[in-house]
Amino acid sequence: MFKKKSIFTFLRAQVAAFLGGLTDYGLMILLTEIFKLHFTFSILISGSVGAIINFSINRFWVFKNHSGYSSCINNQLFKFALVVLGSISLKSFGTLILQKTFQIDYRIGRIITDSFVSYGFNYPLIKYWVFRVNEKQSATE
Question: Locate the GtrA/DPMS transmembrane domain: which residues (predicted)?
Fold first, then answer.
C-alpha cells in the first residue's frame, strides 16, 4: 500500500515536471520554428532552462530538501546536472530516432520520448538519488 506522503510527493513532482516541461517544450518550439535551430540543439537549450525551473521547484517544494549548507546544494546541483545531461541526451536521441526511422514529426516524437524519459529515468533518479533524504535528515524534520 502506498503511503499518503509518497503519493503527494509523486503528484508534486509531476507538477514540477509539468512546469519545467512546459517551459522546455515551448522554448524548443520557439527555437526550432522561429529561430530555425535544428530540434536537437533546441532540445539542449530548452532542456537546460526547463531543468533550472524543475530543480528549483523540486528542491524547495516537492522534496523540501533545502538545508542551508552550500555543500548540500552543490552536491544536489551536481547530481541534478548529471540527470539533466542524461535526460537531454535521451530526449534528443529518442526524438531523432522517431523522426528519422518512423517519420514522426519532432513535436510528437518529443512528447512520446518525454513520457518514457520522465517516468522511467528522471523521476526515480531525482527522488532516490538527487534529493534522497537519509535517516539522519528525516529524524531532524
Answer: 18-131
pLDDT digits over 80-139, tens only?
999 999 999 999 999 999 999 999 999 999 999 999 999 999 999 999 999 887 645 444
DSSP 8-state class, residue 132: P
Cell 533550472 maps to which residue? Answer: 52
CB atoms within 10 A of CB 37: 17
Q: How far apart are CA 68 and CA 83, in angstroms?
A: 23
The three three-digit cell numbers of residue 131, written as one number:
534529493
Q: Are 110 and 28 in contact (CB under 8 A)?
A: yes
Cα four-point dihedral sign 73, 84, 131, 65: positive
Task: Measure the CA–CA gap between 95 and 21, rounded to whole angstroms.
Answer: 15
**What are the residue ranges spanned by the domains of the chain?**
4-134
- Contact between 84 and 125 under an 8 Å Cβ cutoff? The reply is no
CA distance linking residue 15 with residue 29, whole number of Å: 21
Answer yes or no: pTM beyond 0.85: no
Whole-number Å distance between alpha carbons of 132 and 9: 12
